Write a sequence for this structure.
């Protein structure tokens, strides 16, 4: 529940001047603060909406919403930090300075009192809100500007030192919002982990990046293609004392890339449910004789390959067997050269949509993130279907549905064949990169 201020009496609001004046007022209080404006999708009644935060000191920020009829609502969230409160009052003061005709009222529709004492009262109210949460003793999820905060009241010993407990909770709430935001969020997967449980939430980590592990039931520790699913609480206990691990709240943690030998030691030590051949491999197909996807479109896509949000969506036959994080190889057949033209990772769950062929079938599609694109006609070297057939003859590389799962043994052979192919292609290119062989880390 937020405390709301209503602003009226402004015919044409000068957002730029007000925001700049807000920053000047706030800078008088702390020179080194960096302020961020984040646009928010407006609701049906709103014309515009944005949130203002102060880097490293905000918990929930200040919400500014513009409504039809030249009404502006300023919301101060119920667990806003002390600096959020100051930022809110700086914004309201800025409005009165830029727009002399502005009328600002509080929730009782009385003229707002914008004194330091009133700001202090608003901050004390938020401390009381936090104290109430801690006193109840129930774990809660608190929404933050960047991350949700999972608070376990018993961590803060509220009965012994209420004031210290509240301060510590706010410190942790703030720290969670701004610590290592550049780390990769681990994607949640839903899997049947045990026979007793229905679909469980699992976050899979493989020690390849610095990652933020959000709320989950299990952490999946990867060692090659074996996954050991460890309950989150047990994983935190396993990692206790490791310099690369930091528990951020009752249910979330940061994990930095560690020495591979140490990771393997911890993997072996962990107690959990083991699944070998965890990541599956799917063979996608692009038959140019029947596909509505043309080579010219492929060439255009190669120009966009390095973009952050570049992905493909493609039909998948074995949609019930695919999971986020599984690998794929795209095989081109039909007119032209046949072979592997894409490789990458599944980055979405399958969904039904219109039949690409126009035959009215029920077709499922999946989103794919690419690690490689190879022009079938212009690349220096192509891993052809003939090469694949000689190395793995038990699979039909020329014909079949798109999105067929490859057996584990064959998938291992294909990976080895792929790595040999990449080395040969790079040797052929030597110092000059082949512009028709594009590769990156997904």
């Amino acid at each position: 529940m937020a405390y709301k201020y209503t602003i009226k009496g402004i015919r044409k609001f000068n957002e730029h001047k007000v925001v700049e004046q807000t920053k000047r007022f706030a800078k008088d209080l702390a020179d080194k603060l960096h302020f961020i404006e984040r646009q928010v999708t407006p609701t049906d009644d709103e014309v515009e909406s944005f949130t203002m935060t102060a880097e490293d000191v905000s918990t929930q920020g200040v919400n500014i919403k513009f409504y039809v009829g030249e009404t502006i609502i300023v919301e101060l969230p119920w667990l806003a930090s002390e600096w959020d409160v100051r930022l809110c009052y700086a914004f309201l003061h800025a409005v009165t300075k830029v727009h002399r005709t502005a009328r600002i009222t509080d929730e009782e529709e009385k003229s707002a009192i914008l004194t330091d004492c009133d700001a202090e009262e608003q901050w004390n109210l938020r401390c009381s809100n936090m104290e109430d949460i801690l006193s109840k003793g129930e774990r809660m999820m608190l929404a933050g500007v960047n991350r949700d905060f999972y608070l376990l009241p018993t961590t803060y010993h509220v009965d012994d030192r209420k004031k210290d407990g509240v301060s510590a909770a706010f410190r942790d709430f703030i720290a969670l919002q701004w610590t290592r935001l550049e780390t990769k969020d681990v994607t949640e997967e839903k899997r049947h982990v045990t026979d007793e449980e229905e679909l469980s939430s699992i976050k899979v980590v493989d020690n390849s990046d610095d990652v933020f592990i959000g709320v989950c039931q299990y952490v999946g520790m990867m060692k090659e293609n074996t996954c050991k699913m460890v309950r989150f609480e047990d994983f935190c206990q396993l990692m206790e004392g490791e310099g690369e691990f930091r528990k951020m709240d009752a249910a979330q943690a940061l994990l930095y890339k560690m020495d591979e030998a140490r990771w393997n030691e911890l993997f072996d030590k962990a107690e959990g449910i083991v699944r070998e051949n965890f990541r599956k491999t799917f063979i996608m197909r692009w038959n140019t004789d029947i596909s509505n996807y043309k080579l010219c479109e492929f060439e255009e896509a190669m120009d966009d390959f390095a973009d952050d949000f570049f992905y493909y969506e493609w039909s998948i036959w074995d949609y019930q067997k695919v999971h986020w994080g599984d690998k794929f190889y795209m095989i081109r057949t039909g007119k032209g050269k046949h072979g592997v033209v894409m490789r990458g990772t599944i980055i979405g769950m399958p969904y039904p949509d219109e039949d690409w062929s126009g035959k009215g079938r029920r077709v499922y599609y999946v989103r794919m993130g690419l690690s490689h694109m190879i022009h079938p006609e212009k690349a220096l070297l192509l891993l052809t279907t003939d090469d694949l057939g000689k190395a793995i003859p038990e699979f039909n590389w020329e014909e079949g549905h798109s999105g067929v799962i490859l057996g584990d043994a064959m998938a291992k052979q294909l990976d080895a064949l792929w790595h040999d192919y990449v080395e040969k292609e790079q040797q052929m290119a030597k110092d000059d990169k082949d512009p028709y062989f594009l590769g990156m880390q997904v």
Notes: The mean pLDDT is 93. The longest helix spans residues 408-429. The radius of gyration is 28 Å. The chain has nine helices and 25 strands.
